[in-house]
From TrEMBL:
Signal peptide coordinates: none
InterPro entries from the UniProt entry: AminoTfrase-like_pln_mobile, MAIN-like
This protein's name: Aminotransferase-like plant mobile domain-containing protein
Segments forming domain Aminotransferase-like plant mobile: 33-386
Organism: Stephania cephalantha
Taxonomic lineage: Eukaryota, Viridiplantae, Streptophyta, Embryophyta, Tracheophyta
Amino acid sequence: MGFTVVSPGHGGTSEDYSAFRVEYADRLLLRKANKELISAFVERWQPETNTFHLPFGEMSISLEDVSFLLKIPVTGKVVEVENFARYTEESRSGAIKMVSNLLGVSVEEAEEEVNIARGSQSAKHWLKSRWCPKAGSRPRNYPPVECTARAYLLYLLSCTLFADKSGSRVSIALLKLLEDLDDVGNYAWGAVALAYLYRHLGSATRVLVSRIAGYLTLLEGWVYDHFKLGLATPNAKYLDYVHPRVSRWIQKHETVANVDKLGAIRRTLDRLRPSEVTWDPYVNLRENGVVQAMAFYSGKIKYMDVVEPYHPERILRQFGHVQSIPDPPYRPLEAHRGPFAKKYSVKYGFKQDNWERWRNHVLAPEVRGEKAVFEFLATPEYLPWFVKVSHPVITNPSFEDLVMVASTIADNEILERNRQRWTRRCDGWTSPQRCLRLTRRGPL
């Protein structure tokens, strides 16, 4: 996926954009996600660390993953727009003016759309019908090519990186970022999309939340690259160094969620050994450069008013290093993780200077540790520490066959002690009640 835009003087016309490639964006909507696969990994997400907790330790979607999977920049300007966080008269009038000027529509049409959306969101069907009309219904006064390009990019972003739960709305605030089309490529779209996905993964872990937002194609592509679950077919047309890596797989989608399939994925992950994971799928593709260095950035990433911690020290095995016990995660300034999505509110501090000077905030060599001879290696202290602070399995061990957590802690006494502890309580972050509900929960 990319953000190449044809500008006037380069052969582009408004007629070229009227095709809009809507069929491409539409294929990436939420309804196409593999519900069972997403559910199985959401259950293992810990929002305090922004990592998936598996039987042998932590894994997560890194900035390097995003760069390889989507081929979009992970460095650059932060995506933020002032005065759009709340619906006020100021934000309303600003939105009307922006929609009219940047999309080339009348003030009346812009006002009608903004009033319906209450200042912050617009409907995708309005963009689709207005800029991609059916054959024979194209308006005579077609908007300028720049306006049509912005409409297309706004539609594309809302279908991919910033998809919401409805699958039908567009954030008008994003339009502000498309004002200067020559500047679109200077934003850190990869880091921004990752922050957005992190936040919605955290929200989806709440027991009364049944839907998830974010670019789920990114999440699925990450799973297919790291885990051999037999849920995707290799794409014979894929070419390394040419296509985004996410197109390496052809997803198998079902129209109806299957609870039995979800249970099967849960049990597979519960029994998974570290040697069965592809920790570093880019080992033969990686080149020394900005992306590899940026993957070790330790700090916060941001999208609008959403700030999320990024902890590469917790997933060192994904970069070919021996995993050691990490430092405690960042503490939020304020956190309310209620059972509903509307009750989920987490605020972290963010320093713009730290992001702009990210090279000063990468992991030191001593923190990265040694290069791993075998990519799944961890220090002897790591796994015993991990099982003390986490809940490595989802299936309740008292109702299932004994789950082998990892071959490195196969001592029967340790396994039995931890099995009893997992039966008594869930983990250090969530309640025992939620632990019990996890096994009863259906697909998203």
